[in-house]
Automatic annotation (TrEMBL):
Source superkingdom: Bacteria
Membrane spanning stretches: none
Range of residues in the leader sequence: none
InterPro entries found in the cross-reference section: DGQHR-contain_dom, DNA_S_mod_DndB
Protein name: DNA sulfur modification protein DndB
Pfam families, sorted: DndB (PF14072)
């Protein structure tokens, strides 16, 4: 653990005093760096973030997005037994002295890292994690005894710090939403989507579980992320006991929808390929699933009995889902391409509501009016 030997850093009062961290020494690009474990309570005290209102060219990081911090802090507080944070990366503007436990062999890479208290620590990567840790500690001080890995580099100036930030983020790729849903065991909606994908006769074997886009030759009809958003919209605001009950209700709804869309069954019976259906029809695309989910939510909300919503869905069988249907242009299709924008989802929902004789909400009516004005 890092040992705090005196009051917070100040060049006039900390001469001769230092932080001491247990560390492992490594080499990258012919430069030494050090990996240590720091107590969370120490993170906000010594690791600074360049939060001044400076122009981008004289900052070493992007501006802190404060809107992200509460969610990250809640993640730590709500999951004290199984949260995971990756390492912080920091530059040290000051001398670092490493003392290995041995002069040669493996022991020369393991030892203690001595950093003067007057040194300045600047986070190159992890500023939002640092801010979240600070926020979480105010609500749960006991987290202060937990640790996080920190990678220390020697500060070689602004240009080097900016290059480090660029390099650390150059190849960072956000994982596809589908695989995020597949691996998320905290989100009940993700569990419901997985249950449908694995058990439902409508979706089993026809859901892409990893990627959020389908290749032209894919044998899948849907993506797990599309099923997740559609089913989340379907169950929004409904009081259900658990994920199993929610998945059962969702399966009943999607089975009813399936009976009104013959092409889905043709794919299951191998009379059409999934690629043909996706190329010719809209109903397997994410925007259509999302719209069907929102439509179903309305049906379930207004139903007076557990099954009274079923007959109300029957007009779906008469909808022309083909992508050549000019009704979709400007709603679900823009410039020949399927659009997933929020306004396009609303316009697609509007189209379905009108076909089923349902009223539009104020937001939907406004979006519809704007769309119709644009057509004239």
């Amino acid at each position: 653990m890092g040992s705090l030997l005196s009051s917070p850093p100040a060049s006039r009062t900390t001469a001769g005093f230092e932080y001491v961290f247990p560390a492992i020494r490594g080499v990258q690009a012919q430069r030494e760096f050090y990996v240590s474990m720091c107590p969370l309570r120490l993170i906000p005290k010594i690791f600074l973030f360049d939060e001044d209102e400076l122009a981008p060219e004289v900052r070493a990081q992007r501006v802190l997005n404060k809107a992200r911090v509460p969610a990250l802090a809640s993640y730590i507080i709500d999951n004290p037994a199984d949260y995971v944070f990756s390492a912080l990366t920091a530059s040290v503007d000051g001398e670092m002295r490493f003392v290995g436990i041995a002069d040669e062999g493996p022991g020369m890479r393991i030892g203690q890292l001595h950093i003067p208290m007057a040194a300045r620590f600047l986070i190159n990567d992890g500023q939002h994690r640092r801010a979240a840790i600070e926020t979480a500690l105010t609500e749960n001080p006991e987290l202060g005894d937990e640790t996080i890995a920190v990678v220390f580099f020697h500060d070689a100036g602004l240009s080097r710090s900016q290059q480090m930030f660029a390099d650390l983020n150059r190849h960072a790729v956000r994982p596809a939403r589908s695989i995020g849903v597949l691996y998320d065991h905290r989100d009940e909606r993700a569990k419901i989507a997985r249950l449908l994908a694995l058990r439902s006769s409508v979706f089993r074997n026809f859901v892409e579980m990893e990627t959020s886009t389908l290749s032209a030759r894919s044998r899948k009809l849907f993506t797990l992320s599309a099923l997740y958003y559609a089913t989340s919209s379907l169950l929004q605001g409904l009081e259900l006991d658990d994920a199993e009950q929610a998945a059962k209700l969702a399966d009943e709804y999607w089975t009813a929808v399936d009976s009104l869309i013959p092409e889905w069954e043709l794919v299951r019976n191998r009379k059409m390929t999934a690629a043909e259906v996706r190329r010719q029809y809209l109903h397997s695309h994410g925007i259509a699933l999302h719209a069907l989910g929102r439509l179903g939510n309305t049906m379930l909300q207004i139903s007076t009995t557990p099954t009274s919503w079923r007959p109300q869905l029957e007009p779906l069988a008469k909808i022309d889902w083909s992508r050549t249907n000019r009704d979709w242009e400007g709603r679900a299709i823009v410039g020949g391409r399927v659009s997933k924008n929020h306004s396009n989802v609303v316009l697609t929902v509007n189209y379905l509501r009108q076909k089923l004789g349902l009223e539009l909400s104020p937001e939907e009516a406004h979006t519809e009016a704007t769309h119709l004005r644009g057509e004239r």
